[in-house]
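Sharing a chain and its predicted structure for anyone who wants a worked example. Both blocks are below, sequence first, tokens second.
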Amino acid sequence: PQSFIHRLMIAEARRGETVVRIKGGDPFVFGRGGEEADALRAAGISVVVIPGITAGIAVPGAAGIPVTDRRHAPGVALVTGHSREGGCGPDWAALARSGLTIVVYMGLARCAELALELQAAGLPGTTPAALIEQGCTPAMRAHRTTLAQLAGDAVHLGFAAPALIVV
């Protein structure tokens, strides 16, 4: 649990140890790096953050999918498909209207619901989409599909977390 990680980092730092928390991607993009840095600072421990390249940019790139393209997508929205309990999720209707590429972290379990919400908000079922599993690893697997086929393909092809959805 995150609270255990906070306590452990603080305890080790107070013992005089140098604490290094290695995260995949960027620690401040869905990596809880902000929470961890806040906990350490609140305990009076200095923090140095070395940013990485977030999966939402690196993984589609590794699969040959540009997240921005002046012909099709003027920007990119990095969103979570798994909000914390009691938290609010993305405004799918606003994202559908935006014209941005949408990269969804932690959304595989809600893939069918997300695809339906985006279509209900106006994105055609023919909108290009992709599933990318185990990004930037030797086990990486990418599948290009459409928004209408996204959830069925995820199940049929046995995609599992960690995976990104790109629309």
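Comments welcome. The chain is about 35% helix and 15% strand.
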